[in-house]
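Exam revision sheet. Question 4 asks you to relate a sequence to its structure. Input first:
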Amino acid sequence: MKMKKMMSLTAAMMVAVMAFTGCGGSEAPAEEAASGDVYKIGIIQQMEHGSLDEATNGFMDKLTELLGEGNVEFDYQNAQGEQANCTTISTKFVSDGVDLIMANATTALQTAAAATADIPIVGTSVTDYVTAGVIESNDAPGTNVTGVSDLASVEAQVDVLMQFCDPENTKVAIVYCSAEPNSIFQYDLAAAYLDTLGVPYAAYTVADSNEIQSIVTNAVADCNAMFILADNTLANNMEIVKNITVPAGVPTVAGAEAMCQVGALSTIAISYYDLGQKAAEMAYDILVNGANPAEMSIEYMTDGIVPKYNPEIAEALGVTIPEGMEPIA
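Answer key, structure tokens:
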């Protein structure tokens, strides 16, 4: 008699479970993907400027969508451009035992990787992960680090710049911060391509933001075109650049859309919001599906990349906009 009661109770429980989950074994909605777990995500952003802000917002929005609003907690920290702050934040994330670190920009990524070899790290707004010294190869990272690269074709950026120049009478100033490994990597690509074009160029490097005014002033005195790499130090000070290059009549191409919005004539635009969303998809794969960062190749943006220009600066310089180039909003 007791056995019959037990069997009846078991059957009733199975019916209740089937009624709750539904018949047919359909896939759980995004809100239930984490099975009730609350994932703690540490976000370290190197500094505050448009491109990095967009990447962080894209990451948070997409991961919240994938995991469900009640299943994820973000600890967002901005290092204000200071490496010491990056180190402190990374160390705190490790001691707090976060489930994953999202590192936004190169120094943030390097300090996070130095702080832990165990917690998964997903990077964004990083040009080359091998140059940053945090992985073994882009195809097979071999460490707890993976992520998305913000590398747009440097060659394409140079081609955009040359549309505003006379190739027979142009010298290009390549401006970047010597303290940023991603910028050194881009400089090598730009220099090699300009060599193939036979266009003269010169490197103008700043150690920090305090040198931008004087270095850019020297650059426009010696060169009549400027290429500013996707460089965080310069990105945070494009107003200074604009106030020097526009009065001097020097067309400037910058390595990111947010930089162009503030102080450059043109760019090849990558959506940093989309960049952050792609990083979130990688984070979801690690957290929910158990993907191993060491085996996840570095991803790149391939869609929606278009040449854009700043209408205000174009008018001030009196240049003709090439066909197919879109105005920046």
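Marking note for examiners. Residues 123 and 147 are 4 Å apart (CA to CA).
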